[in-house]
Amino acid sequence: MTAAPVTDRMSRATVALGLGALASGLFAAVDPIQYRLVRVQGPGLAVLLALAAVAVVGGRLARRALVVSSGAGFLLAAAVQMVQLGAGTNWLRGDGSTFSLFLGFAAGLLTLGLTPVSPPAADTAPTTRQDAPGT
User: Fold this and answer.
1) How far is Cα 103 from Cα 126, in angstroms, rounded to an integer?
2) Is the pLDDT of residue 130 over 80?
3) What is the CB neighbour count within 10 angstroms for residue 80?
4) Cα–Cα separations (whole angstroms), residue 109 to 40, 52, 99
5) 88: number of Cβ within 10 Å
């Protein structure tokens, strides 16, 4: 069974954003640490990959509820990371870069999931009337 190609703009954008989030998991593999642009490791990496997979599936199936839930999950993860930035507890083992990454994906996915989409306009017959010059 093969999946149908994604043709809707919103779905394509969601899949692209989800794949970008999956690719962001590669930041965990960068060594040495001074070249790592985003600190993603341990539980934060698991959260990133799980929510990115939900976004990709939501985009492929054109299920806006999955896209919104993925965006809400990223927003929650960003909030948890922000609250714990100055504290001794760091459940996601991240820093400000992790917060920014999660917040960016949350904004994008929530925008895609919550933006109303109007149905395509019905085709209308072309007009044959031409305007007179000077009107």
Assistant:
1) 46
2) no
3) 18
4) 19, 10, 15
5) 5
User: Which distant-in-sequence residues (6+ apart) come within 8 Å of 33 by Cβ?
Assistant: none
Instruction: Report d(CA 20, CA 101) in Å as an integer.
Output: 11
Q: Which of 93, 61, 62 is nearest to 80 (CA)?
A: 93
Task: Report yes or no: 80 and 106 within 8 Å, Cβ to Cβ.
Answer: no
- For residue 117, the number of C-alpha atoms closer than 13 Å in the C-beta half-sphere is 13
What is the maximum alpha-carbon separation in the chain?
Answer: 76
Cβ partners under 8 Å of residue 99, min gap 6? 78, 81, 82, 85
Per-residue pLDDT tens for 88-105? 889 999 999 999 999 999
pTM to 2 decimal places? 0.82
- Tell me, rounded to whole angstroms, the distance of Cα 39 from its chain centroid: 19
Which tokens in the block code for residue 131? 């305007």
